[in-house]
């Protein structure tokens, strides 16, 4: 019973992680990972700054959505 | 270290191969190992593919050959899925082997241009979902519904065979070539490969095509919301919901995308339920019952404001909602069809398959069926998405087959499900809903009489069924609700109520379907306007440099106004058209989309030829030839056909003559003003067709010239290569959804590499 529940919760968590990836919710985490791995000298953008920057760049560089 | 020979990966002799870091495990599965894996047919594998082929064959037999009273919807699922699997496993591998020739030793733009923002290596399965959400919208939900006029078989064959041989090929190739060029857009590639003339023609054609596509998508929404207080309220509520989400993400809890999407989704459901309550009240019905012209104007004003508002406020949050809904809806639809398995009583070929005077859309099966169903079989619009965004996120070159080709197969499956949903409703109801009011007369009695007078086998509809359906779905009327969306919504409600909730839930499911279609379309309208504005700004910027500055408000606003004005004019034309806007304009939508596909395939043709692949050029030439023949024939008929229902100019002449003769009503137009509107509209539509087809012929001709030139100079090594220089990759990831044995082995090797060594990038700031 316990094992079944664990499988279920794992599956659900995996699905939630997948969905957040598709939505792009993990963009900041990926940015931080990139920042760390590339040995940038300056501090990374804060979460708030990052998301602002992200949408503001979309303003200047629009992406199509399909029909 | 980039110069070090790469012995471990066995890359010697491979075209364009680069030497990867010997300190790391190989970044690609050895070619010989992969080939051996591919070619080794174990008994299990043989049995599996034999079973898939057999099931697919039986399903096609049930759909195409067996002529029973009804056919079960599950055969559509089996026929499509089995064909997709075979196409993916065999045909796309042929393309990979002979045309794209990916090399996983090369870094993708997401690796060599990595910036943590636009260029980010993304897990292939996540990117598959992301790419799918970007390409799939309302298109595959609408076209197949309209095409069902011809019966189910022509549409089914075109959707399934078309995607395997054309649509998915286009998406895959454009994505791959854009990836090799650092994620360049289709327009930039056209310019590079086809020269100034071809490139400029492609740019203008793309801009015009976007205008048409946005206008007709908007028309679908207008038709779905006209005289529907419930729909207007719930779709209208998406705007404040999106604004709230935008503010929430910007100021309250930045980055909590999942959280805000769930909140938004709950609010959306509340808006659908609330819409039913509001529409019941006298004041609600009073405020939200709007005629189509008012809604069209509302949409135009909305389109302008939405396109100049910052992205974070409206577009980004609605995009989240839209993606969330898209995945949910598709899973739901698939489950419902598999669980309910409705019986279909539509004939394989309807009475209209052999005629050219169908009430839903005019014209003969060839070529008009193939333009009516664009998205789902072959959609040129995808080329704009497949170039640009997704290529910047791909982790390994080999994954483009899964994401590009596979993603399009998935969209095709959505189209099949939409077709099934639409044909699961009563056939008489289908024609009463999809024929223009000029034919049905607009009331349940006249519509029933008209439908029964068509002489369709097995169709005998009563006015009561029409009013009962309207009552069940919570609408005032379902007669002449053209545009595909309401029909799909009725079909979906019909299937879903058997699954969850019964008849009492039908009105909820209907408005749920209208809501998601409207959501997809509004996002496409908004994003399309922005992209078109940007292209216009860029083009004007060649003459007036100030326009190139995206942040220069007057320029951006002026270009937005021009683009909104352009699609708004076409939209109003469709809404006020006495012939019924969908009837006249939908073919133009399909032609535009397919012409864009022809342009994209032309660019691919030129690139493939320049890479020296002539033996397998037919893989690109085949869909290009088909798209070119279909669209040029369709355009030709739209321009030159003497049948007024088909030819724009024939219709124009007929109405002009009637006006000159002093008639006050003619055909479906009951007033002189309406007749003048027909004259004006047909002239504009006719000339648009002329411009489209001329521009496309220029693009195709320049591509063919580039191909011939490449053929003449083959072997001379003079062909220009516009690819970014190859750089060694430092990462590994499997190519398909599930890793193969060899890939698992390699992954295990990579697991052992210390993280700091794995992601270190030389020369990065």
Automatic annotation (TrEMBL), chain A:
Domain of life: Bacteria
Record region (Disordered): 37-67
Basic and acidic residues biased stretches: 46-59
UniProt name for this protein: DUF466 domain-containing protein
UniProtKB/TrEMBL annotation, chain B:
Lineage: superkingdom: Bacteria
The keyword Oxidoreductase is assigned to this record: no
TM region(s), chain numbering: 46-66, 72-91, 126-146, 152-173, 194-222, 228-249, 261-283, 295-316, 323-340, 360-381, 402-425, 508-525, 555-576, 588-609, 616-636, 684-708
Residue numbers spanned by region Disordered: 1-26
Membrane topology qualifier: Multi-pass membrane protein
One GO CC term on file: plasma membrane
Signal peptide: none
A Pfam cross-reference name: CstA
GO biological process, any: cellular response to starvation
The keyword Cell membrane belongs to this UniProt entry's keyword annotation: yes
UniProt family annotation: Belongs to the peptide transporter carbon starvation (CstA) (TC 2.A.114) family.
Protein name per the record: Carbon starvation protein CstA
